[in-house]
Write a structure and sequence with these properties.
- The chain is mostly helical and 78 residues long.
- It has one domain.
- It contains four helices and no strands.
- It has helices spanning 3-9, 14-33, 39-48, 63-73.
- Helix 2 packs antiparallel against helix 3 (39-48).
- The longest helix has 20 residues, at 14-33.
- The radius of gyration is 13 Å and the shape is globular.
Length: 78
């Protein structure tokens, strides 16, 4: 799953998309500055942390659960 898919899922949530992009940008800078071994994982988590807010993924209404259910149903965790 890439950034384009996250953008597609959050299409109706423009404020959410802006927030997620900002968090991912900060994670990228912070991961490099802190020399975190898994900086790429930090950035991936930043891009995905609010994916459950997508109207397309609404199931329980609890965005962390809806997001992880979606991710588990994709090849993301394969």
């Amino acid at each position: 799953m890439g950034v384009a898919e996250v953008r597609r899922l959050l299409k109706a949530e423009t404020h959410r998309w802006a927030h997620v992009a900002g968090v991912a940008s900060a994670a990228s800078v912070d991961g490099e500055a802190l020399r975190i071994d898994e900086a790429e994982l930090l950035v991936a988590a930043a891009w995905l942390h609010d994916i459950g807010y997508s109207a397309d993924l609404l199931d329980t209404g609890f965005h962390p659960l809806d997001g992880v259910r979606y991710l588990r149903s994709t090849a993301f965790f394969a």
